[in-house]
């Protein structure tokens, strides 16, 4: 069961003032540029549909405005301003308007159905399958593989090879979310207990912004993700790195940072290669390889990471990440430990 939603006319019209940027990497900083740019075969037909809807909306608004202006300007005869003419004279305009509207709507149904069919399946077998699960308010990303030891789990970033279709299975762990990377594909709902599917393909390397677009709670606006498209060789190198366990020289409670992590964080987070095996929060095995933290809320820097650990509930109220009250010694030790998660 699929739920693909496309841009509405009033949203499309509001986009036209966005400044156009010259390439995929730069355009990723302005997600609403999807009205003028698409970078994959699953997004281009949707973009054309948006143009048609926007054009028709503008034309209809102009026609209605002209009719309204005509009605305002037109006056009754001054010779007998109180006379009432035969009321049936205006029905012809109603018949014409109803007929034209019916033809336009019928045409849009046919065209929209053709677009849905066009983007339903990729033209070739997907190069890989990824499962994305929506949580309040972050994304769990799992790369499937026949060999369980080759399974990759990461968070809030979806890495894909350029020029190859990728099948995405969409799940929700709590409430209804919606997965949308506007420059690569349309929207698809993520419904608890249901597995929906979508496919994306990037024809140009770059970073494409995505967002949950189904209101899912107080942190909905800060539930972003990034699709990072790279060459097939770079993607293969990234996969090989992600499959490795954490390369830590200290994994015992003799290290104060490791002890703080195991006491405070291991109940929710996993670090492969250690005893931390939590399932309710992002896998942190390769934390420092990610561009952002907190589902796109903050850039992944030591200062921002410390700020997130200490003030998570202020930055994203209601999230599953609590604000930790750690001493200066504890936070310093924890930050030193996390700095090794490459």
Write a structural description.
It is built from eight helices and 13 strands. The chain is an alpha+beta fold. It folds into three domains: 102 residues, no CATH class; 116 residues, Immunoglobulin-like (Sandwich); 83 residues, Immunoglobulin-like (Sandwich). The strands form three sheets. A six-stranded mixed beta sheet has the order 1-8-7-10-11-5. A five-stranded mixed beta sheet has the order 4-3-2-6-9, with no helix packed on it. The protein has a two-stranded antiparallel ribbon with strand order 12-13. A hairpin with a 4-residue loop joins strand 12 and strand 13. The relative contact order is 0.12.
Q: Which sequence of SSEs, written as H and E, runs from N to C?
A: EHHHHEEEEEEEEEEHHEEHH
Task: Extract low-pLDDT stretches.
Answer: 1-28
* CATH topology heading of the largest domain: Immunoglobulin-like
Summing up helix and strand content along with how strands pair, one would put the structural category as alpha+beta
Average pLDDT level? 86
Radius of gyration from CA coordinates: 26 Å
**CATH homologous superfamily label of the largest domain:** Cupredoxins -  blue copper proteins
Strand order in the sheet with the most strands? 1-8-7-10-11-5
Task: Record keyword descriptors for this entry.
3 domains; 342 residues; five-stranded mixed β-sheet; Immunoglobulin-like; alpha+beta; 13 strands
């Amino acid at each position: 069961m699929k739920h693909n939603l496309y841009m509405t006319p009033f949203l499309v019209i509001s986009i036209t003032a966005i400044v156009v940027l010259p390439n995929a990497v730069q355009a990723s900083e302005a997600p609403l540029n999807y009205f003028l740019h698409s970078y994959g075969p699953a997004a281009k037909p949707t973009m054309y549909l948006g143009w048609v809807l926007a054009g028709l909306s503008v034309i209809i608004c102009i026609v209605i405005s002209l009719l309204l202006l005509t009605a305002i300007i037109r006056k009754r005869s001054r010779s007998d301003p109180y006379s009432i003419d035969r009321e049936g004279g205006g029905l012809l305009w109603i018949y014409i308007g109803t007929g034209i509207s019916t033809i336009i709507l019928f045409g849009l149904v046919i065209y929209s159905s053709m677009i849905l069919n066009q983007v339903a399946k990729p033209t070739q077998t997907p190069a890989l399958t990824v499962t994305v699960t929506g949580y309040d308010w972050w994304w769990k990303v799992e790369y499937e593989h026949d060999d369980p030891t080759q399974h990759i789990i990461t968070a809030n970033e979806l890495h894909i090879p350029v020029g190859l279709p990728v099948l995405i299975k969409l799940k929700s762990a709590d409430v209804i979310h919606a997965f949308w990377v506007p420059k690569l594909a349309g929207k698809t709902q993520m419904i608890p207990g249901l597995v929906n599917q979508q496919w994306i393909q990037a024809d140009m390397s770059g970073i494409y912004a995505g967002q949950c677009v189904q209101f899912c709670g107080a942190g909905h606006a800060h539930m972003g993700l990034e699709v990072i498209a790279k060459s097939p060789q770079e993607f293969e190198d990234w996969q090989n790195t992600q499959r490795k366990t954490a390369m830590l020289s200290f994994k015992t409670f003799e290290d104060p940072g490791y002890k703080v992590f195991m006491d405070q964080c291991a109940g929710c987070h996993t670090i492969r290669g250690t005893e931390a095996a939590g399932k309710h929060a992002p896998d942190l095995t390769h934390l420092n390889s990610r561009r952002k933290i907190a589902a796109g809320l903050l850039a992944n820097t030591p200062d921002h990471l410390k700020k997130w650990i200490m003030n998570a509930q202020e930055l994203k109220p209601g999230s599953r990440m609590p604000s930790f009250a750690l001493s200066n010694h504890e936070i310093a030790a924890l930050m030193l430990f996390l700095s090794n998660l490459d």
